[in-house]
Amino acid sequence: MADEAGLDLVEIAPNSEPPVCKILDLGKLKFANQKKAAEARKKQKIVEIKEIKMRPNIDTHDYDVKMRAMNRFFEDGDKVKVTLKFRGREMAHQELGMKLLLQVKDDTQAIAKVEAEPKLEGRQMMMVLAPR
Q1: Is the CA virtual torsion 24, 25, 29, 32 positive or negative?
Q2: DSSP-H helix ranges across 1-132
Q3: Which residues pair with 50 in a beta bridge?
Q4: Most CB atoms closer than 10 Å: which of 62, 110, 118, 127?
Q5: Contact, 35 vs 65, CB < 8 A?
Q6: Nearest-CA neighbor of 57 among 14, 116, 100?
Q7: Do 52 and 92 contact (CB within 8 A), yes or no?
Q8: Residue 73 near residue 112 (C-beta atoms within 8 A)
Q9: 5-37 tens-digit pLDDT
């Protein structure tokens, strides 16, 4: 029947009982599947990790500017890595850095969740936040 119609006999579900076959144009089927896969790739959102760098003794206005940038990143669907750099004697007051990161966590609690808790690595403390 497929030869008479000038089409191909395509096995659709080989594992079912009995196997399911259709008479259709194989070239058109492959083209449609290719288009569907391209459309799915186009709609994919690649999540980037944006980084915000701060210092433990950051001023309130500078902090507000960083928070606005962070909120913009969350609206775009990106993750944010907050890095706190300690220099010199600031290493003696790591509790100030932890306090600042906990403040960031509280301020972004409505729109973001903590993916990696604040931790110290060498001279910097970091935390990763992801949008809700």
Answers
A1: negative
A2: 2-5, 26-43, 60-75, 94-107
A3: 80
A4: 127
A5: no
A6: 100
A7: no
A8: no
A9: 888 888 888 888 898 999 999 899 999 999 999
Structural tokens at position 42: 């186009």
Cross-strand partners of 32: none
| CA 69 – CA 129 distance, rounded (Å) | 13
User: Is 8 exposed, middle or buried, given 0-12, 13-18 or 19+ CB atoms closer than 10 A?
Assistant: middle
Q: Which residues contact 17 (CB under 8 A, 6 or more apart)?
A: none
Q: What is the reported pTM? A: 0.66
Give me the residue label for tokens 């932890």.
98
State the CB neighbour count (10 A cutoff) for residue 70: 21
Closest Cα partner for 74 from 111, 117, 116?
Answer: 111
Return the structure tokens found at 7: 């089409």
